[in-house]
Amino acid sequence: MQKLSVNNKSIDTILVLDFGSQYTQLIARRVRESNVYSEIYPWDIDENKIKDLNPKGIILSGGPNSVTESYTPRAPQCIFDLNIPILGICYGMQTLAEQMGGHVESVAHKEFGHAELEIVSDSRLFNKLNKKTNVWMSHGDQVQDLPDDYELLASTSTAPIAAMQHKKLPIYAIQFHPEVTHTDDGKIIIENFLFDICHACADWKIDDLIDQRIKEIKEIVKKDKVLLGLSGGVDSSVTAALLHKAIGKSLTCVFVDNGLLRKGEATQVMKTFKDNMNLNVIKSDSQDVFLRHLENIDDPEQKRKVIGRTFIDIFDSEAIKLKNIKFLAQGTIYPDVIESSGSESNEARVIKSHHNVGGLPDEMKLDLVEPLRDLFKDEVRNMGIELGIPKEMLERHPFPGPGLGVRIIGEITKEKISILQEADSIFIEELIREGLYDKVSQAFTVLLPVKSVGVVGDERRYAEVIGLRAVETVDFMTARWAHLPYEFLENVSNRIVNEIEEVSRVVYDISSKPPATIEWE
Ligand code: XMP
Fold this sequence. Notes:
Blueprint: E1 5-6, E2 9-10, E3 13-18, H1 24-33, E4 37-42, H2 47-53, E5 57-60, H3 78-81, E6 86-89, H4 91-99, E7 103-119, E8 132-145, E9 150-155, E10 163-166, E11 171-174, H5 186-197, H6 206-221, E12 225-229, H7 234-247, E13 251-257, H8 265-276, E14 281-285, H9 287-294, H10 300-321, E15 325-329, H11 334-339, E16 367-369, H12 377-386, H13 391-394, H14 414-433, E17 442-456, E18 459-472, E19 480-481, H15 486-499, E20 503-508
Parallel strand pairs: 3-4, 3-5, 5-6, 6-11, 12-13, 12-15, 13-14, 15-16, 18-20
Antiparallel strand pairs: 1-2, 7-8, 7-9, 9-10, 10-11, 17-18, 18-19
The structure holds xanthosine-5'-monophosphate.
The site of xanthosine-5'-monophosphate has 16 residues, from loops.
């Protein structure tokens, strides 16, 4: 269900070519925040695909490679023949410079973080900007010599060529990152490119989308039946609400209670969707099967695989019980699509095998319905609000597919799950009470595989250790540990050791990502 038109009107698209930067998705988001539709494709995209997309402009992203080395990615030659505006960012600028006959060098002084940009020539790209502005840099290479026919637009103290443009063609390049919020005028620069240079129309609006998606779903599904795995997370919940609106009782949702959910979560999900939203939801009580399959397993990757496989088996057997299902709906969103795109240019390395429902076995032959496939998380959330999903559900912190399974370090037992559920619920309850829940991006507790000595009254207590983890992040790719107030942490710690007999000690995780990941496993 590719988004190409709103109300049958084709809309202006900005193509972002990905050279592997961690910020590529942010570029597309920023463009969409300005109400212009944007899609990301790998730098080695097929030429015909570019023509099909018929973009109004192209942005070349940053990337981890060095153009000074051989066999590193280059912008496809065909984009220069289209005669449409191009903006190169960071690596995108360097490859433009190299391809146009300029010279790029690795410099001894790598530039990370804030820099003051001094604009030296007038350019549409810098319309409405002062001559000096703060920008965010992250590079080890830089353009040393301008290509022929290019002029210098701006410099920083360490990068003499920090922005350039072609003298006649609409090709622009900047060394800094306008897509990150640390670049003060980043939004203005992106909008200058979109509106003053590409002359794109701001016609991408989430409100039009619900009606359009409902219409598309009806056309595809007709009178057939659809099955959806409902996890209670934002993506599957919004998919469920959208499908329900489109096809009503032809949608059946299966909610698998794997016993690794947060305290009270199964009840809450069922209440929201079955009772309040009147959805057709079947609950599969599968706690025992998961526990049995997880017995004696302490390796994190194996746990993820076992949980993922068990989930599919259960979902599969529930699906078989239902007759005449023709479609499988999935809450796939745009970052999932990009992360799993198997291009050679996809620089993402597998750090953990994330568990998401990969679909049912081939013999079931269900067609996929993925109505959120081209949307970002915040767009999905906005859609959820419009669809009447309670705000508390939409604004909950993310919860990993394998659930508490990857927050109990070592082997998983029923007792450990229940200790962790209690600790987690105390931590979250206190965060909400103190108005801190929305200030952190994700918070949870971890049950460590060590015991420690404590003393209660005159008794020695050799008991469990709970780790508290809270992070602040924009995109979950990098994160800073949250600087929660000491008094707050003290209160949470007191409550946990006093209310949970099996726990004698609480520690706070002060690791950032990288090098640590957000979850412990
Ligand atoms: P890490 O631990 O890799 O986590 O820094 C980044 C974000 O992803 C979530 N996460 C998962 N989500 N299935 C998911 O659906 C998984 O297997 C999984 N592992 C981690 C994590 O909670 C954080 O928000």
